[in-house]
Amino acid sequence: MRKSLSFMPLFVAFALIFGPRVSAFASDSTDVKNIVVLGDSLAAGYGLDPALAFPAVLQTKVDEAGWKFRVINAGVSGDTSAGGLRRLDWLLKRKIDILILELGGNDGLRGLSAAALKKNLETIIERTREKYPGVQIVLAGMKMPLNLGDYAVEFSRVYPDVAKEKNVALVPFLLEGVGGSAELNLPDRIHPTAEGQKILAGNVWTILKPILSKTSNQ
Question: pTM higher than 0.70, yes or no?
Answer without folding.
Answer: yes
